[in-house]
Amino acid sequence: MKDILRTVWIFMIVFGLAVSSGCVGERNEASNASSTEEIQIVDSAGRTVMIPHEVTRVAVSNRYNMEVIRSLDAMDRICGVDYGIYQDRDAYEAFSLDQVIGNTQGDLNYEKIIELNPQVLILPGNAAWEDAEKKLSPFGIKVVVMNPYYTDHFQELYRLAGKIFGKEDKAEEFISYFQEKLDYVQKQLADVPKKKVYYEYRRAGTTTVPGDYFYKMVEYAGCDNIFKDAINTNIDLETVIARNPEAIVKVGEEDAPPRWQAPGEAELAARKERICMRPGWDQITAVKEDRILMMSQYLQGGAAKIIGTLYIAKFLYPEYLPDLQPEEVFRHWVEYYQHRPYQTGHTLPAFHAEGEAK
C-alpha cells in the first residue's frame, strides 16, 4: 500500500512540474511576443511607421520635442539627446555628455545613435529625417517625425507623442487643459476689432508670415499681423515704420538661446530700449504709446506656443479677457508639466496672478 501511495505521490509531483514548466514556457512566449509586437502610428510628416508596442529607449532632437515628452512624464524613456538639449543644464541636468547624439537636429552623430541603440529616434520635420531613416533602418532603429512648432496642430502633436509612449490619457488631459484656454480667447475676441501688430523673433527684421512657425500663434491671439501679406520672414525695418503697428511683440534676442531661466526685467528692458532707439521708430504708434510686449523664447514656445498666444492676447485685449490668467497658465506649465521651479521675469511688462500686465 505504501509503495502505491509513493508512486501516486511521485506522479503528482512530476505532473505538477510539467504543468508548471508549460505555464512558464507560455508566459515566456507571451513576454517575447509582447516585446516584439508593433503598433502603427502616423507621424507629423504623414508617414506610417511601425514602432514597438512598448517604447522604452528613445533618442530625441529638438528641445521643444523634449518639452512635449516631459509634459507626458516620459523622460525615463530617453537615452540620447542633442547638444542643444544637453547644454541647458538647468532644465536637463540628468543627461551626460556621453548621451549626446549630435550638435543639432541637422548635425547628428549616427555612430553614437547606433551605439546607444534606441528603439526610436524622434526628429522635427525640419531635420534630415529621410537621411536618418536611410542610415538607421538597417539597425532596426525607427525614425519618427514630431513637429512641435505649430499651434494649430498641437492636438495631433500630443496625441502622436501619447501613442508613442503609451501616455494617451496624459496627452488627452494636456489637450483638454490648453484647448479650453484657446477656446475662451477665440470666443471672447470673435467680434473684437483686431489691432495691428508687428511680431519680431530674435533678430531685428525677422517676423512671421503665413505658413511660418509663429503665424498661427499670432493669429490666435487676435492680431492683425502687419506682414500677413508677406512671403519672406526677413523684412525691411523701414517697412514697419510705414505700416505703423499699434503694438509690437518681441520674442527672445539674437544671441540668447532659449532657457528655462528667466532673462529678468533688466535684460528685457535693455532689449526694449534697443527697439525704441531704432532710426525712425519713435514715429511708430506702438513705440509712442509704449505698447511693446517683450517675451522670453522659453515662455513663448511653451505648449506648442499656446502660452505665447495667451500672453499676447491678454496684453492686447485685457478688458475682453477677464478670466484669462496667462501667468498662472505659465506657472502650471512649468511646475506641473515641466517639473521645474516657476520663475518670474519672462515678460515685460510683468504679468501677475490675476493675469494683468503691470
Describe this structure in words.
This protein is an alpha/beta fold and 358 residues long. The protein is 43% helix and 14% strand. The chain has a five-stranded mixed beta sheet, with helices on both faces. The chain has a four-stranded parallel beta sheet with strand order 4-3-7-8. A two-stranded antiparallel sheet has the order 1-2. Helix 7 packs parallel to helix 13. The longest helix is centred in the first third of the chain and has 35 residues. The chain starts with a helix and ends in a 10-residue tail after the last strand. The relative contact order is 0.10.
Strands, helices and their partners?
Elements: H1 2-36, E1 38-42, E2 48-52, E3 58-60, H2 63-71, E4 78-81, H3 83-86, E5 102-104, E6 107-108, H4 110-116, E7 120-123, H5 129-136, E8 142-145, H6 154-165, H7 168-188, E9 195-201, H8 215-220, E10 223-225, H9 237-243, E11 247-251, H10 265-276, H11 285-288, E12 292-295, H12 297-301, H13 306-316, H14 326-337, E13 347-348
Parallel strand pairs: 3-4, 3-7, 7-8, 9-10, 9-11, 11-12
Antiparallel strand pairs: 1-2, 5-6, 12-13
Descriptive tags:
alpha/beta; four-stranded parallel β-sheet; 14 helices; 13 strands
Task: For the record, give the distance between the C-alpha atoms at the N and C termini, rounded to a whole number.
Answer: 97 Å
* Fraction in helix: 40-55%
Give the oligomer, counting copies of the same chain as homo and different chains as hetero: single chain
Radius of gyration: 26 Å
Number of helical segments with 4 or more residues: 14
- List the uncertain runs: 1-35
Largest beta-sheet characterization: 5 strands, mixed
Mean pLDDT: 89
**Structural class per helix/strand content?**
alpha/beta
| Helix and strand sequence | HEEEHEHEEHEHEHHEHEHEHHEHHHE
Widest sheet, order of strands: 10-9-11-12-13
Proportion of β residues?
A: 5-15%
The total strand number stands at 13
Shape category: globular
